[in-house]
Amino acid sequence: MRGRAGYALWQRAWASFTGINLPPRPGHAPGTAPRLTPAPRTQAAATAGWFALPSLPEAGALTASGSDTVVLEASSPDGRAFFVLRRTDGQTAEFALELVVRDTVDQPELATVTYTGPDGEERTLLIPVSPSRFGPAASFVGLDGFAAGSTWQATGPAPVPENPGWPSATVTRSVRAARNEATREAWRRVREGAGQEMRDTINGAL
């Protein structure tokens, strides 16, 4: 049995992908790792391809902690995509999302996440992932305006459509939300198959 208690989701996903046995972490008994929460589904969301993600606890329920703290983990209904919500700054309560996708084909894929901020404004982020030579495809993005009480949902990941009609403002916001080079590289892969206007928008945001 693999001892996975005490490991982050991406580490457990990487171990499953490679078949590596993770040694038990001190203070964690084997077999006691927290389970992934399947994303809730409603009939309407399932029909449209969207699924709700677990709600973030209210502000009073979040413990004060340092940066890079995992707040919650969830998986897509089919178990193919993993969503890891992280608190990246303990003082300002900024959040970021890690998306890990298994079994990607040899082309970029894209998930969409929408969420509401404290101001009630809905924000949309396009999150591409591209195949990796060293494990599952993954991207890491900042969630500007995400806070306790925010509601959010996701769809995908799915192959990037030909000539997507994404609003340029959404593309710009999504590209600028990238927190690491793997995510920016995924956008470069998306750019390769896009029309000139979309390429210009991605270039300007990169």
TrEMBL record:
Highest taxon of source: Bacteria
Protein name: Uncharacterized protein
Organism for this UniProt entry: Streptomyces nogalater
